Amino acid sequence: MKIIDRYILKELIPPFFIGLLLFTFVLLINRIFKLTDLIVNKGVPLGTVARLFAYIMPSFMTLTIPMAVLLAALVAFGRLSTDSEMIALKATGFSFYRLMAPVMALAIAACAVTAYFSLYLGPEKARTFKRDLFILAKTRSVINIEEEVFNDSLKNLVFYTQKTPSPNEMQGVFISDERNPAEPYVIIAQKGVLDVDPATGVAYLDLTNGSIHKKGTKAEGYQKITFDTNNLSINLYDKLFNEDELKKPNRELPLGELWAKADEVKAAGGNYYPVLTEYYRRFSIPVACIIFGLVGPPLGLYSRRSGRSAGMSMALAVFAVYYLLMKGGENIASNGAVPPALAAVIPNVVIGAFGLYVLVTTARETAFNPAERVSDLYTRSVRGGKAKRLKKGRRDGF
């Protein structure tokens, strides 16, 4: 690798990771408060909460990695231009296109990582997050049973305990189990200890010195079974999910299942456009890394002439326009107004065309001032309107 390429990469890497952390934190801030509440108020172990954070990170980083690429290119080339290093590089014979090589290398690498998150890891971890959070909520509802209060938060199960010496320990336990309506029964035990297996989503309640009370045969209307130890298993996931919770939303489906679902909904005569919109969106977002890699360096040089705030404002404007186009395209594609594949590429085409324009303009060292361009267009339109009104007035005899 050329020395200059390594030098530019060193300028790109720090702002890239700083931007990645900053943007991810902004998107995660709402979840941070909720997950922190699990530690403070619910007594959830820190390791469990950290695992939940790891599950939701791929979905958020799918959006923040392209943003970090744009910020890195903007800051790096803005710094090079501010310190007049860009002038020195051009004086030694480096063209602006050649200086773009490290940026595009970073953008392509970021595109590959984003594609992995968007196409594979993100949907898988989103489903895992939902499952583990559900299990955790059900587990906490069992563990945080209040003393001398009937707890019916679990489906077809009622818990009552006289004392809770520790979060997972109960004394004086009463359980009404109606998960099998044909054979309901009641358990009374002196002590119970709860343990949960997160991998399977099964809670195990080890009971000691108790009895089971249930309906007997016709000859014997009541049956009592005493025990020294007994184990009650509670499936916190599959058995207790209702049908709506078992259905995977589009964002949690792998690519193959997503395409199969679109075919299934289409064959049934339903609206399959939202499914296809999600399918093509996963391919379009990674390409944004390359698009932002084209836009960032020219905007960085522009900040040198109009101040750093101007370049940063332009970057935020690019973010806003891109995601507005993306969300707008998803909305109109979900109704079938435009093909989902076309709606998915609209943001990349629009921002990509703008990126190529500012890139060529900067490489040719042509003055690039969007404010002046907008002002010129406005002035021309006003003059044209006045000229038309004057011409019409002369024609009408005024």
Low-pLDDT parts are 239-246
Tell me the major beta sheet.
5 strands, antiparallel
Along the chain, the helix and strand elements come as HHHHHEEEEEHHHHHH
Overall average residue pLDDT: 78
Shape descriptor? elongated
**Distance from first to last alpha carbon:** 73 Å
Order of strands, widest sheet: 1-2-3-4-5
Number of strands: 5
SS class: alpha+beta
Roughly how much helix do the residues carry, as a percent range?
55-70%
Number of domains: 2
Radius of gyration from the CA trace? 31 Å
Number of helices: 11
Could you tell me the strand content as a percent range?
Answer: 15-25%
Ordered list of secondary-structure elements with their pairings:
Blueprint: H1 3-40, H2 46-82, H3 85-91, H4 96-99, H5 101-143, E1 157-166, E2 169-177, E3 185-197, E4 202-215, E5 222-235, H6 243-246, H7 255-267, H8 273-306, H9 308-334, H10 340-363, H11 370-395
Antiparallel strand pairs: 1-2, 2-3, 3-4, 4-5
Structural notes for this entry:
This protein is α+β, with helices and mostly antiparallel strands and 398 residues long. It folds into two domains: 264 residues, no CATH class; 85 residues, no CATH class. The chain has eleven helices and five strands, in the order αααααβββββαααααα. A five-stranded antiparallel sheet has the order 1-2-3-4-5. α1 runs parallel beside α5 and α8 packs antiparallel against α9. The longest helix is centred in the first third of the chain and has 43 residues. The chain is elongated. The protein starts with a helix and ends with a helix. The relative contact order is 0.10. About 2% of the residues have low confidence.
